């Protein structure tokens, strides 16, 4: 039984084995393969989610697990109960694993020390979102075969992005070159020693152009830059997308602010992998839940 808290501490061989196992599940024609029958999994979302929550549930159900869904707003958290007490409550009822999304940073690591069942990180503040990065790597591997030597630009709100951090750690372990591009207010200075910040024109020369959502809800006082100015300076507009190398792919973890960080017409253009990313979330999470409960 194994937790998945982040990719920073995970060996390249472990990441590769999850990607390979996801490929096995991706090729599986049977929709239901109940290897997790009689395992009880709680999806505990203390922060909103569409893709991650539903693809974990899809993955768990495809593997035959019994699924319990917990939403903070409809629980005793709304009466002030702590995250720790909530997780311990579900653990005492007999869950075999927990999938958890949290806003405050540092809480997941503390929880993992106190809780005995495996925990899977479904988004941890600004820190890590490991299954998102795994599905991103899987999507890149589908397009390019290997990640070694691949040039990946991550563009946008790096500061608040757990997606950028998990991708940075995992991509570098697997031999890809990562660069960042962001307005000053969205830079994460502590990451500068790991990946350089470059201009938007340079960033768009990469093999993979990963656009990030401007996370308005995580900016203390809102952002100083207006949406149309952000789009003009850092957005993947139709004009910029037309100048990309023909083999370049466009990614975005979604939800998308259409016509802010990426133009409406670019979201579903042939170079876009945004919807395949969502599809790939299911086999990746099947591999992660199998690893948590069986391996
Ligand atoms: N990409 C992602 O984590 O989306 P949700 O917030 O909808 O889960």
Properties at a glance:
four-stranded parallel sheet; aspartate carbamoyltransferase activity; pyrimidine biosynthesis; single chain; Asp_carbamoyltransf_Asp/Orn-bd; 14% strand; 11 helices; 295 residues; Aspartate carbamoyltransferase; binds phosphoric acid mono(formamide)ester; 39% helix; alpha/beta
Task: Annotate the secondary structure layout.
Layout: H1 12-27, E1 40-45, H2 51-62, E2 66-71, H3 83-92, E3 97-102, H4 107-114, E4 119-124, H5 130-144, E5 151-155, H6 162-173, E6 177-181, H7 200-203, E7 208-211, H8 227-234, H9 238-242, E8 249-251, H10 264-267, H11 274-293
Parallel strand pairs: 1-2, 1-3, 3-4, 5-6, 5-7, 7-8
Helix pairs in contact: 1-5, 1-11, 2-11, 5-6, 5-11
Q: What this model shows, in words?
A:
The chain is an alpha/beta fold and 295 residues long. Helix content is 39%, strand content 14%. The chain contains 11 helices and 8 strands. The chain has helices at residues 12-27, 51-62, 83-92, 107-114, 130-144, 162-173, 200-203, 227-234, 238-242, 264-267, 274-293, and strands at residues 40-45, 66-71, 97-102, 119-124, 151-155, 177-181, 208-211, 249-251. Strands 2-1-3-4 form a 4-stranded parallel sheet, with helices on both faces. Helix 2 links the parallel strand 1 (40-45) and strand 2. Helix 1 crosses helix 5, helix 1 (12-27) packs across helix 11 (274-293) and helix 2 packs across helix 11 (274-293). The structure holds phosphoric acid mono(formamide)ester. Phosphoric acid mono(formamide)ester is lined by residues 49-53, 123, 132, 253-255.
């Amino acid at each position: 039984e194994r937790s998945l808290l982040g990719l920073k501490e995970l060996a390249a061989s472990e990441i590769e084995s999850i990607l390979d196992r996801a490929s096995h599940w991706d090729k599986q024609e049977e929709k239901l393969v109940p290897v997790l029958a009689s395992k009880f999994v709680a999806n505990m979302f203390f922060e909103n989610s569409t893709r991650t929550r539903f693809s974990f549930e899809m993955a768990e159900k495809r593997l035959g697990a019994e699924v319990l869904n917990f939403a903070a707003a409809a629980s005793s958290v709304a009466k002030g109960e702590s995250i720790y007490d909530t997780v311990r409550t579900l653990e005492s009822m007999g869950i075999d694993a927990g999938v958890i999304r949290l806003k405050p940073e540092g809480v997941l690591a503390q929880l993992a020390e106190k809780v005995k069942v495996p925990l899977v990180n479904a988004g941890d503040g600004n820190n890590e979102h490991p299954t998102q990065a795994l599905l991103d790597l899987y999507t890149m591997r589908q397009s390019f075969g290997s990640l070694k030597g691949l040039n990946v630009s991550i563009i946008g709100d790096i500061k608040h992005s757990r997606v950028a951090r998990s991708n940075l750690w995992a991509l570098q372990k697997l031999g890809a070159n990562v660069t960042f591009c962001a307005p000053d207010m969205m830079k994460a200075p502590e990451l500068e020693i790991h990946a350089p910040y470059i201009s938007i024109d340079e960033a768009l020369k990469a093999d993979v152009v990963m656009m990030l959502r401007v996370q308005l809800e995580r900016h203390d006082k809102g952002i100083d830059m207006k949406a149309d100015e952000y789009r003009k300076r850092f957005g993947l507009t139709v004009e910029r997308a037309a100048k990309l190398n023909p083999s370049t792919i466009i990614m975005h973890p979604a939800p998308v602010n259409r016509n802010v960080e990426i133009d409406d017409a670019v979201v579903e253009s042939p170079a876009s992998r945004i919807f395949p990313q969502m599809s790939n979330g299911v086999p990746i999470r099947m591999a992660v839940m199998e690893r948590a409960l069986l391996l």
